[in-house]
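Researcher: Quick one. two chains, 940 residues in total.
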Amino acid sequence: MPTSILCNEQIPLLRGEGRYIDDIKFSDMLHVAFVRSPYAHARINNVDTEVAKRQPGVVAVLSGLDIHADIQPIRPLLKNSGFQATNWHAIAWDKVRYVGEAVAVVVASDRYIAEDAAEHVIVEYEPLPVIDSAATGMLADSARVHDNLNSNILLETQSGLDKDDTAFKKGDIKVRANFRHPRVTGIPIENCGVIADYRANTDELVVWSSTQIPHVLRDALCDSLGISAHQIRVVAPDVGGGFGTKMQALPEEIVVSHLARLLHRPIKWTQDRMENIKASFHARDVLVEAELSANIDGTIVGMRAKAICDVGAYNSFPLTAGLEPFTIGSALAGPYDFEYYSYEGYAVSTNKCPMGAYRGVGFVLGPMVMEGLLDKLSQKIGMDPALLRKKNLAQPTDFPFKSPAGPIYDSGDYPALLDLALEESDYSAWRNLQSEARNEGRLLGIGMSCFIEMTGMGRDTYRKRGMVNVPAFDAARLQVDRHGHLEAFISTPSQGQGQKTTFAQLISSTLGAPLDDIKVHLGDTATTPYGSGTFASRSLVSGGGALLKAAEMLQDKLVRIAAAYWQVDNNDLQYVDGRIFNPNQSSEHLSLKDLADLAYTPFQELPPSVEPGLSVHVSYNPPPAVSSSAVHMALVEIDKNTYEVKIKDYVVAEDCGTKVNQAIVEGQVRGGITQGIGIALLEELSYDSEGQLLSGSLMDYLVPGIYETPAIKIVSMETPSPWSVGGFKGVGESGTIGAPATITNAILDALEVSAQDIQLPLTPERIFRLKNKTKS
Amino acid sequence: MVQDTTNNSRLIKLTVNGVLYERKVEPRVTLVDFIRGELGITGTHVGCEHGVCGACTVIFDGQPIRSCIMLAVQADSHSVQTVESMSSGEQLHPIQQAFWENFGLQCGFCTPGFLLTVQDLLSRNPDPTDTEIREELSGNICRCTGYQSIIAAVKQAAIYMRQE
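Model:
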């Protein structure tokens, strides 16, 4: 390790033999199309389905009222006094609260017919005042998204506000700015999809979904449909990217499941791209107002910040609207050591698409805010930005390090990581290039950001946040069959991150078995043990941790079987490289196949404490969090005439603890940075004041293509976590966390302006305004 | 697959991956829905249904096209190749092999569109530069890899194919 083993699970995908949701079909399958609200906020006075029902090929048309009695609303909970729960009906029946909310569903023999018939559903709406932004929603006299709630604020959280702020005031210098992260979404190239099939012979509802969280989705379906978990099996087949946007329970998953039970036919819904952009899960849409206090020598004294998150119409399951404000609150201090920190965060409901997770979540705001303020401070006191950072980073001797923002970081060496990035980028050469460029009147800028990513979070963290719908542990079942071949069943499924290969490598290296003898199963609640699923950079830490523990238990069992066979003491034996040697006869050993034979055939007598067979199941509660760290540096040039940004060079120094597969890690980092480039320069879901989405296609919502994405140099350090099994730290989101700040800072540096009110993405128009506002 | 409720279907003849198919199809059915739904050849993926992402790229009479914005009836008497045509038996096509060896894919959903676009590129330009690769692949979106490994894969594929 960390060998870049190729991913065998990719071979069928390369040959066009993948089985994604839309590739699965049954002979008697029906298809659905949803009728969606064109209004952001309106009362539903009537839904007339009669004409639609009469269309040839239509099997059923149901409105919200038709299913109201049978389906419980999505109502995730958060144990926090500042939280307000919301009822999200899978099909709206009394009111719609965002454009794209489902108001009826059409079931037909094919999708074309279903969509045609959907046009014949006549809905009478009575428009209501639209809460178009968090700022509006927070006003005391604002109209309400939910009439039954006290306000539009779904969550209010604070940390450190009760502290005496004398320390903060003591700082010689204050710098402040506002940072606005756009409303974005993940755009996995595969849209969401679900097929449900009720099987009467086993009283089982089988649900195939492009979900990141099969077990948690099953929990959600139980709650909504009022049936037991053992009556539901959720299967995630090949999934074409998730990035967090597929970790929320979709209303459509619930409706399709209900229809399968109602009609006793397999039902399929494949989301189209317009639905994906308009009515699947959005993310971020955050304003952070922040102030940094520092001494003239560059020492940070304190930070205070306020985050306002526009979370759309409903709490999403399982994370709720608390996701962004909690994460931002714990992320803003980053890798820096200082005294004073106070934070308040608000999740405000509006008449927009509900908010879910997307790669990086509030951690993206960490460097956006802190690194932005640090650059402003460096300009103010005339200190080099790299030096200023070095002065304030937590030291390797500080671990476990309690961040001023609250969380405790396990390990790392931030100054060494910064040095590595400076060296790899040849920072001083970049500065020379910049001087030359400036002499020529060109706009060349350098940006950097030092940041951490809290990953693989365990039960302590979710308990503290009050997130009761997330189990926060994962599990692995590992078994050896009677021929000595291995199978692992793990609760963290793949959306393309190469888990099957990574997990097989872990098994191979711990049990000394060749990779060809190992099969990894993911994404099926009927075969994998219960666990959280894949999100928040947790697969390797949590699923991999469970797997390593299972391998350890299995080794222990193998030793006890060998001890019984040779009638020796357990302590005299060791399982090494796939075999155990006889302590009394060094030429004699038992291979994994021999041991499997002993475990499965009745001829070997086993002591009562050793169960026959070779199968172990381990649940693993990972540490509260293990913190990966990274430093990103970018050299960008802005075209003087068009204000187009060209990323000329991009360097990453990263430390994600013990690695298993170097190429997979690099793929995560590069892919993450690409999504971060989208946030910095291109991607924005914008709404007008009537709550109409203005960027509902990939012609309007721009994601980075191959032109916008530079070659990225990656250099690595490995500081194994002392807290997690295996020393692992997650790395799935790191790239997305660092890139927006790095590119923003490089652009500001190129323009020679300091951060005041930064709104991403920095489109040519916004860069033009930044440049010229400063000059005027 | 697609039921004709309009009695408006046309008979089309279409060669897909060397096999001639004769089917009745409604004029409104897209080529990709026809290939996937009617013929059951599902390697071609639908990513955006508006011609932006490139996941549905197929080779149409030797040219890469977006099968989500072409109608099946327009393909009457023409020839289409999908990703399934690339490998022969167990053997991966050199482009597929190079994508695999260079981690040029993660989730694999956009991959068939990339593979076919690259096949077209390398048939015209056996030794493309980085700039040329970027130019040619600018119509395909990948959300996972960050493209760098795809560029490496294309260069590797070019070497493999020149050696053949």
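Chain B touches chain A through 60 residues (CB under 8 Å).
Researcher: Thanks, that's what I needed.
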